[in-house]
Amino acid sequence: MNPVYATNGCIQNGSIAPRRGDVMTDQLPVHVTVVIPTRNEEAAIVDTIRSIPNDGWCKKLDFLIVDGNSSDRTRELAEQEGAWVVLEPRKGYGRAYRTGFALAPGEIIVTLDADCTYPGEEVPGLVRKLVEENLKFITCDRLRRAEEGAMSGLHGFGNWGLSVTARMLFWYGIHDSQSGMWVFWKDIMENEKMRPTHDGMPLSEEMKINARRCYGRKKAIEVSVPYRIRVGDAEINTWGDGWLNFRFLFAKRLGINRTRSEWGPDENTQV
To answer: What are the tens digits of pLDDT across the range 106-158?
Structure first.
């Protein structure tokens, strides 16, 4: 079912995305927390937060920033936007999410990167889809609708190679194994088999594998969304992260991946 807005929406490839300032006429009775991992994202953190409509489309919307010890003004700017900022000294993209998922106060969690690459305006429609279609997990496919220049040739090839490898190993039907935009009910993380184990970039592919294993293709679905040119400098190691992701897929397939840190914050996490 498409959401209904009090004013005209922006039509994007057949879907309706709300403009900032549009008001949904049918409020969703859910508390949504947007979890965003950051490290030196001052160039885009404000626009990332503001890209998600905050006009009453859900009962409550809040933002949880899990920061990996940024040396710029990321934390300050996020706090000025009303976000709850948590400082996580333990390193890693996956570590930030494993802390954020445990701390998020909302009953629905939305994730995206802090670089304006993911379409924040799609969030209300995705949450509505999760709720009204009785889904457990949505992952967003960037590859089919990526804007020109959003990925370099090397990154595009790497994403394709990892996604093909994941489909061959797990036969789970996910087109974009590396996407970092997900929408899901927080309580699915009470299932130990759903919880991701990795503190690094492989957490992204692990989330999708676990979701399909736990909930199948009818409850854990993939939806295509736009993907845009990054704002700010990337903090990833192209070759190192690519190789780490590749190795993890085989470790996961063989069942030899292990959790090396505790779920959630520890005594050094500043909440």
So the answer is: 999 999 999 999 999 999 999 999 999 999 999 999 999 999 989 888 888 88
What's the pTM?
0.89
Contact, 212 vs 172, CB < 8 A?
yes
In angstroms, the CA 198 to CA 192 distance is 14
Residue 266 per-residue DSSP state: -
Residue-range domains of the chain with CATH:
10-254 (3.90.550.10)
Task: Say how far apart CA 39 and CA 93 lie, in whole Å.
Answer: 9
**CA distance linking residue 3 with residue 107, whole number of Å:** 20
Nearest to 45 by CA among 101, 105, 115, 109: 115
Contact present, 108 and 185 (Cβ < 8 Å): yes
- Per the prediction, the chain carries an average pLDDT of 90
